[in-house]
Design a protein that fits this description.
The protein is α/β, with parallel strands linked by helices. The protein is built from nine helices and nine strands. The protein is globular, with a radius of gyration of 17 Å. It starts with a strand and ends with a strand.
């Protein structure tokens, strides 16, 4: 039997998942940031601000922002003086980010189409690796984490912002109802695409728990791993060091 991976609640081949995830993000690229505001009632901006504060970008550092798509994290880090390479497997997402950078007058960012599982960058090149709301869409998460470890310098740091499962009683049930029933309808109304947002919600449900994902980060070779839950674990900041 061929290898199977999850695409939302379906089991598909790795090749099919990569293709179908690509189609999802090509479909939603132009409305991605508007949808983020609508789905999170603007809270994603606060989560990203906190995330970048944890990363602590420094002038002169080389930072890889993987699955950086439309540039939200990269713009925040570039403002702190770091040199940012924005990478994404989806060119449509990168094109939106490049247009946004041009509108902002930012010409210092490097944009590079990359597969997180097979980066073309040399080993021990970056001071930090960031990925926000992207790793759950990677076909083989273990390979992406191994690549993150490879391209980091010794002493480099890994930071991931991702949805998880809130542990707050009551809130979890309300959020489950909201996400499964309302988010696809919002996606249809704003982006004209309910199915893509149905997948994105399902992908959150299939993502490993916070302890499980921390274990995967350690298995990739990172040490001093840490998890910082937000809203009881609805969102979490995972981090680790290459030492």
């Amino acid at each position: 039997m061929s290898e199977q991976v999850s695409f939302g609640y379906e089991e598909v081949t790795p090749e099919e998942k990569t293709e179908r995830v690509g189609a999802v993000f090509s479909s939603v690229a132009r409305k991605y940031d508007v949808m983020n505001d609508a789905m999170s009632v603007g809270m994603h901006r606060l989560w990203k601000d906190k995330f970048v504060r944890r990363v602590k970008p420094q002038p002169g550092e080389q930072i890889l922002d993987m699955a950086g798509g439309t540039g939200d994290i990269a713009f925040r880090m570039a403002a702190r003086g770091a040199t940012i390479t924005v990478s994404d497997i989806n060119q449509d997402m990168l094109d939106v980010g490049i247009e946004r950078a041009m509108d902002k007058g930012l010409d210092s960012l490097v944009w590079s189409r990359q597969n997180a599982e097979e980066l073309s960058f040399p080993s021990r090149f970056f001071d930090a690796y960031t990925i926000a709301f992207g790793i759950r869409n990677v076909t083989r998460i273990d390979k992406a984490l191994a690549e993150a470890h490879r391209v980091l310098k010794h002493g480099g740091r890994f930071y991931c912002l991702e949805f998880s499962t809130t542990q707050w009683p009551g809130f979890k049930e309300v959020y489950d109802l909201y996400s499964h029933q309302l988010v696809p309808k919002i996606g249809q109304a704003i982006a004209g695409d309910a199915d893509s947002y149905r997948y994105l919600i399902e992908s959150i449900r299939r993502f490993p728990t916070m302890p499980e994902f921390e274990g995967m980060i350690r298995a990739a070779g990172f040490t001093r791993t840490r998890v910082e839950p937000i809203l009881g674990g609805l969102v979490a900041i995972h981090s680790g060091w290459k030492i």
